[in-house]
Write a structure and sequence with these properties.
CATH architecture of the largest domain: Orthogonal Bundle
Strand content: 5-15%
Radius of gyration: 22 Å
CATH topology of the largest domain: N-(1-d-carboxylethyl)-l-norvaline Dehydrogenase, domain 2
Strand order of the largest sheet: 3-2-1-4-5-6-7-8
Bound molecules: 1,4-dihydronicotinamide adenine dinucleotide
Shape: globular
Oligomer: single chain
Structural class: alpha/beta
Length: 385
């Protein structure tokens, strides 16, 4: 099967590496010759490293390299059975690209977008044959992250999502099926990890080092929210927050913060600019957390209650199945446990209690408990047990 990838930036290059390694012939296109060259070099370097580490034989690395065909000519895509688009996050640009592509590929070529924030349905709408259109959403870096969200548009023909799931699985990835709603699974459910941490900071309840310490040391998360936002970059993370908020018709639950907006406006994007919540200057002294366990536990239970609430609502609204929700959060953002299993462990009644206390205190929709949690408590149900 020949696969076309359009856009050879961070994501396109990674996806090209994944599918070439899986044995497909890959046509990789970018309108920018430099970006295409950068992608070829980075894939080569990655394959070399994998071979050096013994994770890939030299023959396999060479064969993978030989299957990769960078090009600046979209006419080369005539023989592709699947094309995955990973160009800039702009609806008009993506729609225009697919209109052009439909005049080149065969009628049964599957068309896919790796968009993180646009609706799959809105991109599919530009196509003559929207029934062959689907979302295939990888995580960065694509060769490393196992999770792939598969998102059918409302126009997508029945059966295509299952075919793509199988294909993604054959690449050694873990596919989950998501409804075409803002943020799909991961970028929706993970919002409170950032938003509630910032809220706690804004209230002066704890500082960044203490919140990060609590969520890593006591919560078991691999990175604290502030270190993670600085790592992702506030240019990316703030934009996702804002676009999810807008796409949810301004549901206050997803409201962005002024604190992060100001970092974004100042160009303090985090690690990549040397300054975000933390300073990355060589002489910078990392702030010391207040290792007060009682304070730390309050922080963890507050953030966790909001995350669980988000996962419960996603389940209640059929955004994804229970098992796919768990897989998405453990494999897409490396959470130490699935949020629903975590709710069982903590006690759903306690989680609901935390949310209701917060709601009683603030009267804000961000603390609005999912009706599913309330029903489960009433009926003494568990997600897994
Ligand atoms: P990027 O900016 O690194 O790369 C985009 C590439 O597309 C550039 O090389 C650019 O020259 C090329 N391009 C732009 N318009 C084009 C066109 N009309 N034809 C051909 N090439 C064109 O962007 P990145 O981060 O790789 O993101 C790409 C897509 O993947 C976006 O839709 C983004 O939302 C999505 N995504 C990004 C993730 C991330 O963490 N960066 C994660 C998952 C999805």
């Amino acid at each position: 099967m020949i696969i076309g990838i359009i856009g050879s930036g961070a994501m396109g290059a990674g996806i090209a590496q994944v599918v070439a390694t899986a044995g497909h012939t890959v046509r990789l296109l970018d309108q920018n010759a430099e970006a295409l060259q950068r992608a070829s070099h980075s894939i080569e370097a990655n394959l070399r490293k994998l071979a050096e580490k013994g994770k890939l034989t030299t023959e396999a690395a060479n064969a993978t390299r030989a299957r990769l065909h960078p090009t600046n000519d979209i006419q080369q895509f005539t023989d592709c059975a699947l094309v995955i688009e990973a160009v800039i996050e702009d609806l008009m640009v993506k729609q225009q690209l697919f209109r052009q592509l439909e005049g080149i590929v065969s009628v049964d070529c599957v068309l896919a977008s790796n968009t993180s924030s646009l609706s799959i349905t809105s991109i599919a709408a530009a196509c003559q044959r929207p029934e062959r259109f689907i979302g295939i959403h990888f995580f960065n870096p694509a060769p490393v992250m196992q999770l792939v969200e598969v998102i059918p548009a409302i126009q997508t023909r029945s059966g295509l999502a299952a075919e793509i799931r199988n294909l993604v699985e054959s690449w050694g990835k873990l596919p989950v099926l998501a409804k075409d709603t803002p943020g799909f699974i991961v970028n929706r459910v993970a919002r409170p990890f950032y938003g509630e941490a910032i809220r706690i900071l804004e209230e002066g309840f704890a500082d960044i080092a203490t919140i990060d310490w609590a969520l890593t040391e006591l919560g078991g998360f691999r990175m604290g929210p502030f270190a993670l936002m600085d790592f992702i970059g506030h240019d990316v993370n703030y934009r996702v927050t804002e676009s999810v908020f807008t796409a949810f018709f301004y549901d206050p639950r997803y409201k962005p913060s002024f604190t992060q907006k100001r970092l974004f406006e100042a160009g303090y994007y985090g690690r990549k600019t040397g300054r975000g919540f933390y300073s990355y200057a060589p002489e910078a002294v990392p702030p010391v957390p207040n290792r007060d366990e009682a304070l730390g536990n309050v922080i963890v239970s507050r953030v966790l209650a909001l995350l669980i609430n988000e996962a419960a609502d996603a389940l209640a609204l059929n955004v994804a199945s229970r098992d796919d929700l768990e897989l998405a959060m453990t494999k897409g953002v490396n959470y130490p446990k699935g949020l629903l299993a975590w709710a069982d462990e903590l006690g759903i009644a306690d989680v609901l209690d935390t949310l209701d206390h917060l709601y009683a205190e603030y009267h804000e929709d961000r603390y609005r408990a999912s009706p599913l949690l309330r029903r489960m408590v009433r009926e003494r149900q568990h997600f897994f047990m």
